[in-house]
Amino acid sequence: MSTVAEELAISTPDGTMTGFAQVPEGDGPHPVVIVIQEIFGVDDHIKDVARRFATEGYFAVAPDLFYRQGDGLTVSYENREDAFALRATTTPDGITADLNALMAHLKNDARVNSNVGIVGYCFGGGVVYLASHAVPGISAAAIYYGGGIVPRDDAPAGSPNGLDNAGAVACPVIGFWGEEDAGIPVAHVERIEAALRDAGKDVEFHVYKGAGHGFFCDGRGSYNKEASDDAWPRTLAFFKRNLGTD
Q1: Which residues pair with 4 in a beta bridge?
Q2: What is the pTM of this model?
Q3: Residue 185, exposed/middle/buried by CB under 10 A (0-12, 13-18, 19+)?
Q4: Smallest Cα–Cα separation from 214: which of 40, 81, 35?
Q5: 3-state secondary structure of 137
Q6: For helices 123-134 and 92-107, angle between their N-to-C axes, nearest 10 degrees
Q7: pLDDT single digits (tens) 169-224
Q8: Annotated active-site positions, please?
Q9: CA distance 218 to 215
Q10: What would the pLDDT profile of 113-139 be if each residue is shown by its tens digit?
Q11: In this structure, are residues 45 and 217 in contact, taking their beta carbons and an 8 Å threshold?
Q12: Is residue 78 classed exposed, middle or buried when 0-12, 13-18 and 19+ CB atoms within 10 A define those classes?
């Protein structure tokens, strides 16, 4: 399917949120997939993911959640210190406000329909979990190695725990995780899945042997082709079931 690249400009309470969109040619209306960045920003990899969804018939948008710090900021994969510093400038309330602004913007675009999915990677995976219970109108949520959902084992007592919100998750969830991910132990993945199942949610998780954090990004040293090649068609099938396609 032929697609066209566009720049995003979304009005929010804190200014204009920029970002990237790749949209199918034609009037539509098309279902939407919101693509949430890693801590490295809306870089070439995230733009490529949006393009891949667009060729499948989705109106793909990748909002820049770091826009408060500057337009189009990206950080190299080797510069983790600056990437973590950028992530630290975000807050759950700010992200929720940004995504609600994006949803309002999409409702006014005649090229899209009301079926909206969201997918995110690393930092973005945690954002997807947040959106699944805090942003009305999300129809399907795909989490790739989402961090911050469960507090680290060494986190202070009383640290926020995303599992407390499992009962409020309002859409089906699919998740993809690396068995060798040092930052997100399999035990944490199992806790997330159990919390969602216990809350009666539609959940499907996949854990890949030999894969670590960031296995889907072909620009990172942790890229795992086997895991990536398995996760992609599962993601497409999940969105097709819950959003449809053109």
Answers
A1: 23
A2: 0.97
A3: middle
A4: 40
A5: coil
A6: 70
A7: 999 999 999 999 999 999 999 999 999 999 999 999 999 999 999 999 999 999 99
A8: 122, 181, 213
A9: 8
A10: 999 999 999 999 999 999 999 999 999
A11: yes
A12: exposed
